[in-house]
Amino acid sequence: MVSEINRSRVVSFTAMDRGAREDYDLVAAHDAMNAARLTDRVLTWLRSMDDDSPYPISRLEHALQTATRAERDGADDETIACALLHDIGDVVSPRNHSEAAAALLAPYVSEKNHWIVKHHGVFQGYYWLHHYGEDRNARDRYRDHEHYEACVEFCARWDQVSFDPAYKTHSLQHYEPLVRDLFARPPRRML
Ligand SMILES: [Fe+2]
Ligand SMILES: [Fe+2]
User: Fold this and answer.
1) Number of structural domains in the chain
2) Residue 24 included in any domain
3) Around ion ligand 2, which residues have CB less than 5 A away?
4) What is the whole-number distance in angstroms between the Cα of residue 184 and the centre of ligand 2?
5) Confidence of residue 21 (pLDDT cuts 50, 70, 90)
6) Which domain holds residue 145?
7) What is the pLDDT of residues 22-44, one digit of tens each?
8) Of 161, 146, 130, whose CA–CA distance to 138 is shortest?
9) From the CA of 105, how far away is ligand 2's center (Å)?
10) C-alpha of residue 48 to centroid of ligand 1, in Å
11) pLDDT digit string (tens) for 156-176?
């Protein structure tokens, strides 16, 4: 909150083109503090998905179930974290949730995992778009992409099947360390 900002440590400029290196050092220090709180915010967003849903389970439970299936299939920690967070974009960008989740993850994950999260929406369309007279094979425009099969698998094995209230799903607590480890990684600079 604005009232919590220490006003004795503010930049000297009111327009960025007047800033000096010391100013941007201040900004960078604040950015680092902001980033350090990211995991807690992400966990709060996940908890906020434990709400009304037209599915047999909540969107949080869907996320946890997707991650649990990935874990039981022997996926590595980064991939499990991506499975857990693949729909987190719903919180801030319900009309573009795949890209929003991918943008959150991009500085911390491999190009492959980023690509899968970014495109999982159109690949999931295979399971429902035809009910609306749309092309369920829209994913085929990526058929020659090196991660096409991996994204098909992500959706087929983990995402589209994870609406089952009878499935034994791990808790959010179980995945908390994994999320903390992911966002503790040195991030790639993204501008
Ligand atoms: Fe999704
Ligand atoms: Fe999903």
Assistant:
1) 1
2) no
3) 87, 159
4) 24
5) very high
6) 38-183
7) 999 999 999 999 999 999 999 99
8) 130
9) 15
10) 16
11) 999 999 999 999 999 999 999
